Records
---
Amino acid sequence: MRKALVAGNWKMNGSKEQAEALVKELIEGFSSGSCSLGKQADVAICPPAVYLDRVSGLVAGSDIKLGAQNCSEYCSGAYTGELSAEMLVDLACQYVILGHSERRALFSETDQQVAKKFETAKASGLVPVLCVGETLDERESGKTLDVVSAQINAVIDHLGQSAFDRAVIAYEPVWAIGTGKTASPEQAQEVHKEIRSQVAASNQVVAEKLQILYGGSMNAKNAQSLMAMADIDGGLVGGASLKAEDFLTICQAASR
Ligand code: PGA
């Protein structure tokens, strides 16, 4: 039985005050027992980088783990504006989201660049959460599995057969992100199953342990039916992670 993971991707939202308030509400939710994780689920939040240090202090000792939304493919040096994986580890981050479709589409990140970031993150001890997913055009022209498979292969080609050991994959259909349109549990399961088979083709043991999250308008209402599917091991949650009550409901759904 794989442990579930629910990760909140706050994106570029909120203020220092709002970040603190949200974390406090989440901690309160977990400690009051209104949401109890048990041993079945892990929870992480990924605030904007400037708030990581503050949030890190607040979540220390709680059930909430910390993640970042991106990191550089370089270890250190003259890369103005970038953040290294080591710096994130320094702030007690355990996860880093990589290759999010917004970074691929808006900041021109390539599969190869994402693979390098993945390598650097792992080498620093972070668990990379690799985002993959197709656009609406790609889905409608029957290319979903080709697109997802190419995104995953770029990492396997770069890092070898155990690439996804101590890593997470998030299947996030681009057409479902922030749109309120969710993939149906069956649509998502079909892709998740393929992802696991693809990883199994290079390493069966790694594939069986691999947490594959669904992302794209996951919310308090649809989380349970998505996570009931055999290969959906949790969620990468955007909009709904900014509301404590909704995020706690999703975490609760993952811990059943
Ligand atoms: P959403 O975002 O839940 O707001 O659709 C998910 C994501 O982009 O990770």
---
Amino acid sequence: MFLQKRTAATAIFALTGALVGSGAAIAQQEVKIGYALAAAPDSHYGVAAEKWEEVVEAETDGRYEFRHFPSSGLGGEREVIEGVQLGTIEATIVSSGTLSNFVPEAGVFDIPFLFRDLDHARTVLDGPIGQEILDKFDDAGLVALAWGEQGFRHITNNRNAIETPEDVAGLKLRTMENPTHITAFEALGAAPTPMAWPEVISALEQGTIDGQENPLSVITSANLSEVQEHLTLSGHVYSPAMLLVSKQLWDGMTPEDQEAFSKGAAEAVTAMRAFVDDVEVSGIEQLTEEGMEIGELSPEQKAVFQESLAAAYEQYYDTYGQDLIDGIIAAD
Ligand code: PAF
């Protein structure tokens, strides 16, 4: 399977490599864009990808042909980002799962209970702090065009309903390969199990993990109700996403085409956020109909979870600086 995925990525490079050259060359030729997504075409990622493509096609007279590889068709997000770094994959929308392995500062947005609501998160990501972190991806050999989002993450599992930190004690919970998240679930006494997304559904089916955590955008589009009984609307952490293109592609474009990709990314983010706004309501209705046992943490219950994260917050202050974290919390 792994070999097949690498082969697909290599094939894209073979197709595009010859074409990604000088801006003048691209101005006349059609360039194929291999576009990797972890989620399904009808997800928040799919909607954003369609919009990005639509804008670029319109602005460049169709000189770029997008080939979508949804549902982890080119592997897990870490492999995909490495592919974009190498130039074997041209574009992607990824979660913040492994981003901090490329730019450590990106992990600050993964701190639990950092953002009050979607508006707060969007304000910070669209502001100077968000831009500063996007710019840092340049040093990692990546062009980060915009912050998108998935929504707030919630816990699903097959063991028990969750109301207190005691309810997650020992819970074998798949987390993203994200040190900030792993620290949080360790502090809560769970048994965090970092795992690439393509392995998660079978691990849930086989019972090697009890649960996972993701936003409603993913829980609905990945049909998690088929393999998970309990959904706790914990909203424990905001889940940003990022729109990335390869430096090889970017450096070969004219400034006009770069502008088209930036405009497309901005419109893709708007489409993605509209999807998230909608699924925050429709997702709960859908998952109720699909038979999930759904509970929501009250503000008081969330406060208890937050208090249990005191030790984790000490680590976050050491890693990211208290001024930055306090500045994000205070932003409005
Ligand atoms: O949980 C994850 O790894 C991510 O949220 C996912 C599902 C790959 C979407 O980016």
